Inverse folding.
């Protein structure tokens, strides 16, 4: 019924020329006319009784436009299928202004995925990293808990010193006028943490419960609220209580403070959690090395149209994540060359890995079965209290997107392991603390 002609414009760029015969145009035109005739209301004619030549004269341009629209909708997919092309992005439609005397023509610019011939995996060379938990790593966790797990005991006549926790009420004013956001009630404040405006906490040192203090400070020039930046302010403050810090004297006391039966149980829990982190660190480090080697061994030219579309999607995700985290999106961020370069690199890497890992899956015939998925759901449920685990499992199985993402993660692990098994790897071992330091840098 239709005729398609494919012309290659460049790598992965094609033009599909579509010719619709006059008979098909006439058929669709007649259908559009019948639709219009049943609805048309013209002076002197009853609805549905308007002659065809009158309809053509009155609505000729609209009939032609509706016919073209219907023809494109009817034959768009068929034309792509008959071309034998697999579009990577939405084809770009073009309707030539000059049409033939018979029939109707339109063209589509079709961008396809590049053909990938996977390089020999046995020639890849990279490090297979194992991250280990050492006793020093466990000690660091216990030390951090010793410092961070602090309870405060209120003493009626205690004069506040650095490290004490105060509860305060305050009302801020500038030039005698209260300002928005400058009031607080029963606000906890640990002296020395620097949570308040510079100079605020220092003026509470030595104060006791019941004291009223007028605190004089100046907002920093770079203060986040522009209308307050650089201005002098007064805070009428009432100290409601002063509490001295109480820290654990030993590991058993520390364990009791954080809900464990003993110091031994606390250490075992810390070691288990560190082991999970080390396992994930081992995989992520080896994965990055394997995928870097995979990309380096497979030259690939991505269609610019595909890259630009992915960059737009990546940018949307970045903006969405920033908003969800409460981070303001700078107006000039999208013009920043560094930002655009980073987004392009991320898009290009993601697209290349998607194509290459698809080849790995086909080569290795990898898949994820229901038993493996159930095992992963069970593993993830362990992060919740025992009473909530069945509820989590039921919920996650009712979320198709979550299940699909979980499957993708499991399949990626299998692909990485397959690459590792095929490649020439060197074993590298490092303590968890060293790996953590590298991530901080």
């Amino acid at each position: 019924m239709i005729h398609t002609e494919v012309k290659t414009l460049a790598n992965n760029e094609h033009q599909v020329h579509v010719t619709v015969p006059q008979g098909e145009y006439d058929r669709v035109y007649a259908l559009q006319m019948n639709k219009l005739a049943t609805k048309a209301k013209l002076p002197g004619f009853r609805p549905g009784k308007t002659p065809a030549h009158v309809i053509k004269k009155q609505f000729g341009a609209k009939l032609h436009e509706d016919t073209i629209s219907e023809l494109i909708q009817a034959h768009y997919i068929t034309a792509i299928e008959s071309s034998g092309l697999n579009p990577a992005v939405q084809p770009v439609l073009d309707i030539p202004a000059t049409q033939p005397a018979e029939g109707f023509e339109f063209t589509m610019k079709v961008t396809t995925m590049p053909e990938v011939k996977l390089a020999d995996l046995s020639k890849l060379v990279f490090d297979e990293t194992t991250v280990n938990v050492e006793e020093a790593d466990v000690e660091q966790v216990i030390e951090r808990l010793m410092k961070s797990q602090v309870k405060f005991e209120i003493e009626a006549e205690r004069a506040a010193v650095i490290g004490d926790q105060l509860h305060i009420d305050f009302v801020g004013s500038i030039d005698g006028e209260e300002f928005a956001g400058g009031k607080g009630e029963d606000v906890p404040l640990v002296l020395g943490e620097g949570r308040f405006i510079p100079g605020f906490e220092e003026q509470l040192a030595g104060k006791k419960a019941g004291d009223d203090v007028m605190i004089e400070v100046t907002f920093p020039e770079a203060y986040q609220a522009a209308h307050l930046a650089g201005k002098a302010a007064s805070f009428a403050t009432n100290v409601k209580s002063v509490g001295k810090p109480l820290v654990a004297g030993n590991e058993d006391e520390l364990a009791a403070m954080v809900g464990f039966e003993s110091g031994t149980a606390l250490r075992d829990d810390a070691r288990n959690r560190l082991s999970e982190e080390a396992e994930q660190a081992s995989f992520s480090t080896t994965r990055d090395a394997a995928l870097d080697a995979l990309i380096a061994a497979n030259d690939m030219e991505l269609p610019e149209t595909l890259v630009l579309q992915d960059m737009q999607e990546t940018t949307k995700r970045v903006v969405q994540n920033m908003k969800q985290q409460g981070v303001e999106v700078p107006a000039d961020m999208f013009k920043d060359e560094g930002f655009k370069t980073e987004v392009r690199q991320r898009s290009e890497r993601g697209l290349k890995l998607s194509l290459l890992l698809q080849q790995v899956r086909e080569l290795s015939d990898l898949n994820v079965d229901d038993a493996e998925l159930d095992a992963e759901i069970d593993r993830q449920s362990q992060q919740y209290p025992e009473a909530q685990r069945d509820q989590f499992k039921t919920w996650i199985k009712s979320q198709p997107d979550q299940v699909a993402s979980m499957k993708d993660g499991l399949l990626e692990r299998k692909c990485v392991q397959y690459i590792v098994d095929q490649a020439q790897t060197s074993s590298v071992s490092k303590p968890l603390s060293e790996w953590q330091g590298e991530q901080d840098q």
About this structure: The chain has three domains: 3-111, 121-134+267-440, 150-247. The longest helix spans residues 263-296.
